[in-house]
Design a protein that fits this description.
Blueprint: H1 9-17, E1 21-23, E2 26-27, E3 40-42, E4 45-46, E5 55-60, E6 89-91, E7 99-105, H2 108-115, E8 123-130, H3 135-143, E9 146-147, E10 150-151, E11 156-162, E12 166-173, H4 180-186, E13 192-200, E14 203-204, E15 213-215, H5 218-225
Parallel strand pairs: 7-13
Antiparallel strand pairs: 1-2, 1-3, 3-4, 5-7, 5-15, 6-7, 8-12, 8-13, 9-10, 11-12, 13-14
Length: 227
C-alpha cells in the first residue's frame, strides 16, 4: 500500500489495524500476503496496483561519473551497484569530483519529478573552501549570483565552521544547473575544494559509508513522491 502511494508504511499499518483495509472484500490483517490479482480497498476506495519499481541510495565517492557508460572510459557509478539492482539509472548527477547522496531508480515518473526545474526540490551540500568568506559575499550567494546570464534563485547558506585556513558551509539550493554550487562560489572568487551532497529534502545519508549502496525504505519512497 505504501508503494502504491496510499500513505506512509506506518500510516498504512494503522489503517489495517483500524479495519479500514479489505482484501477481496475481507478485512485485512497485518502480514497478509497479497498479489496483483487481489482487489484491495481502503475505506471503500480501490487501491490501484502499480508496477514494482526499484529504489536505491548511494553514498557516491569521488572519481566516478554519473552515467551508465562513459566515452572516456572512466569509472561510472553503475559499477558500485549490486549485481541484482536491475535496470536502474542515476537520478540527476554529481560531477566527477563531488561525492554524496545519489538516488537510482527505474521509476521514470519519480526521476522526472525530482529533477524537473519547476519542482525545485531542495538539495543540501557540505562545502569547503580555502580561507574566509566576507559577509557581503555570503549574502550574494543567498540572494543570487549571475550564472549563464541569469541570477540563481535564493539559496540557504550557513557557515558551520571557519578559521583562517578553511570555511565549511551548508548550502541548500532548489535548482540544478551544471556544476552550480562550484560556479556560485567561483563567482565570489572562491574555489570549492570539497563538495558533498548530504540531503535531498530532509532525507540524508545516515550512516551509509562512502561507496556503499542500500535500498530505500517504503517510507523514504513515499516521502520522495510527496516532496
Amino acid at each position: 500500500m505504501a508503494e502504491c502511494g496510499v500513505a506512509s508504511r506506518r500510516a498504512c499499518d494503522e489503517l489495517i489495524k483500524e479495519g479500514a483495509v479489505r482484501v477481496n472484500d475481507k478485512i485485512a490483517s497485518l502480514g497478509d500476503d497479497v498479489s496483483e490479482k487481489d482487489e484491495i480497498t481502503v475505506n471503500g476506495k480501490p487501491v490501484e496496483h502499480k508496477q514494482a519499481y526499484s529504489y536505491y541510495l548511494m553514498n557516491k565517492p569521488k572519481g566516478y561519473v554519473c552515467t551508465v557508460k562513459d566515452d572516456k572510459d572512466r569509472k561510472t557509478v553503475m559499477a558500485l551497484l549490486p549485481d541484482n539492482a536491475g535496470r536502474v539509472y542515476p537520478v540527476g548527477r554529481l560531477d566527477y569530483d563531488t561525492e554524496g547522496l545519489l538516488l537510482f531508480t527505474d521509476d521514470g515518473d519519480l526521476a522526472f519529478r525530482l529533477t524537473h526545474p519547476k519542482a525545485e526540490i531542495p538539495k543540501t551540500y557540505l562545502v569547503r573552501v580555502e580561507g574566509t568568506i566576507a559577509d557581503k559575499d555570503l549574502n550574494r550567494l543567498r540572494s543570487g549570483v549571475e550564472l549563464d546570464g541569469k541570477l540563481t534563485h535564493k539559496a540557504k547558506v550557513k557557515v558551520i565552521e571557519a578559521d583562517k585556513k578553511f570555511t565549511k558551509l551548508h548550502v541548500t539550493i532548489g535548482e540544478g544547473k551544471n556544476r552550480q554550487v562550484r560556479r556560485m562560489f567561483e563567482s565570489i572568487g572562491k574555489e570549492v575544494v570539497f563538495l558533498k551532497r548530504i540531503r535531498i529534502g530532509d532525507m540524508g545519508l545516515g550512516s551509509l559509508e562512502r561507496g556503499k549502496v542500500r535500498k530505500l525504505t517504503a517510507e523514504e519512497v513515499f516521502y520522495l513522491k510527496n516532496l
